[in-house]
Each structure stands twice: as structure tokens, then as C-alpha cells.
Amino acid sequence: MSENVNAQLPGNANAQLLVLDHEIRQTESHLAVARRRKRRSNLSLVFGPALLILLYGIYWIPHIERRALVAIYLPTVPIALFFFVAAVKLKVTPGGPPIGELQLGEARQRAKGDVLELQLARQRDQRKFLAGDADTPIAIRRISYKSEAYADINKFRNESTRYRRVNNMLQAILIIGSLAATGTSALTASVPDIRWVTLGMTFAVGIASGFMGYFKYKERSFYLQQTADAIESEWEAVEVGIGRYQRFETEEQRLEEFVEEVHRLKSEQKKRQQNLEQPELRHSQGE
């Protein structure tokens, strides 16, 4: 009974906020894993059967040579089987990271995405009530914001790395497919059946080019990396008191300047992200 009374005292609200913030970040991380595994399962479920159907169609192409079939089937069949196995595994075991310790012969449970979303919403509502009870000084809030800024650096860099990998993969398909399509088109006269390979490569190049132009993975990666580097530069400057922070005499003033600058950088990043996601709106505003 005494523990419940102490937990409701205003003096303990700040400590509970710190613990709850950690739990919220942990739940957000688990939810991100669950969503990423769901996306991978959907992609595997699409690409696996699509490749198998494509291979089945290639087999019935008239007058295709056995060497061409072997050259096509040898790399693509393992890829199609990999997508199939990955889709089955991810659909059977959905959710976030495994819970509990690894034991031989036992499958660990995973919290599903909808459960994590409900848990995150409940934790955020609980934080609102605690924040209303806690009379947290502005200095402590700025220190907390500064600590969260370093987590934002890692988040922006991870997103930048992901977009850069997608862009590099599509760029590789574009380069290799263009060269291969040019080479196979030159052999179409002597090997007529190879025109299907040329058609497939041209189709892949067109898809890669369209995705790169519409989703702008390179620009997204660049802006995210730029924002992460700018926040890190501000973090290091305020830590050692250099640059714009030299003119301030107290730590409170330096924190105020740091919070204002980081907030500006994050706001600009959101605006750039919105512009990339709405190309039609960006063009209309430019006109």
C-alpha cells in the first residue's frame, strides 16, 4: 500500500518519466522490427511465386536451348526458393524480436505488431498523465532533449544507410542490365531465342529507373545523412564549448541554443521529406 502511495507522489513523477521514456523507446524499436519483418514477408511472398511463374514461362518458350535454360535456372531457382522459405518463416513467426533466452528445441515467442502498437499507445497515454503531474524544470527537459538528439543521429544514419543500399542496388541493376541488354540485343540475329532475355533485362532496367526517379532514394539518403552530421556537429560543439557556444557563459544558455538549433534542423528535415514524398505539390509550388 505504501509503495502505491509513493508512486503517486509528485516527487517520483520525474523518475517514472525517465523509466517510461526508456520503455517507450524499447517498444518503438520492437515495433520497427515487427514492421520490417512484415514488409520482408510480403516482398518474399510476391517475389518468390513471381520468379517461379517466370521460370515456368521461360521453360515453354519454343526452340530455347538447354544451355540457355541452365544459365537462367541455375542462379534464379535458389533465389526463388529462398524467397519462398523466407516468406513461410516470416509469416509463421511474425512480430518483433524474440522474447526470452534461447533454448535448444524451443521456439521463442515474438510480440506481434498489433500488440506492440497497443502497448506503445498505452505507454504514451501513461506518459501524458505523468508529464501533467511532474513539475519538471525546463533545464532538465533540455538535458533530456539533448540526450534524445544523439539517438536521433543514429536513427537518421540508419535510415540513410537503408535508402543508400536500395539506391545502390537499383543503380547496379540499371548499369548491369543496360550493358547486358545491349550485348544480348547484338546476338539476337544469330540466337533468336535470346530476345526474351533482352526483353526481361530491358523490363528490369525500366523498373529500376522508374523506382529511382519516383522514390528518389539517393536524395532521401543524402538529406538524412546531412541532418545527422549537422546534429552531431552541434552536439560536439556544445560538449566542448566551441563555435557559436563560446559566447555563452552558462551551461543553461548553451543548452537553450543547442535545443533551438537541433529543433530547426529536424524541422527542415521534415520539410525536405514532405517535398520528396509529394513531387506533384513541389512542382506546383515551383510554378
Comma- or semicolon-separated keywords:
287 residues; mainly alpha; elongated; disordered N terminus; disordered C terminus
* Number of spatially distinct domains: 2
Q: pLDDT below 50 for ≥5 consecutive residues: which ranges? A: 1-10, 280-287
* Tally of DSSP β-strands: 0
**Largest sheet descriptor:** none
Please compute the radius of gyration using only Cα atoms.
27 Å
Helix-strand category: mainly alpha
Helix-strand layout with pairing:
Blueprint lengths: L1 H6 L5 H47 L6 H27 L20 H21 L4 H49 L8 H21 L1 H24 L10 H27 L1 H8 L1
Helix pairs in contact: 2-3, 2-4, 5-6, 5-7, 5-8, 7-8
Q: Could you walk me through the main structural features you see in this protein, from its secondary elements to its overall organization?
A:
The chain has about 290 residues and is mostly helical. The chain folds into 2 domains: about 140 residues, no CATH class; about 150 residues, no CATH class. It is about 80% helix and about 0% strand. Helix 2 runs antiparallel to helix 3, helix 2 runs antiparallel to helix 4 and helix 5 runs antiparallel to helix 7. The radius of gyration is 27 Å and the shape is elongated. The N terminus and C terminus are likely disordered.
Provide a short characterization of the protein structure.
This protein has 287 residues and is an all-alpha fold. It contains 9 helices and no strands.
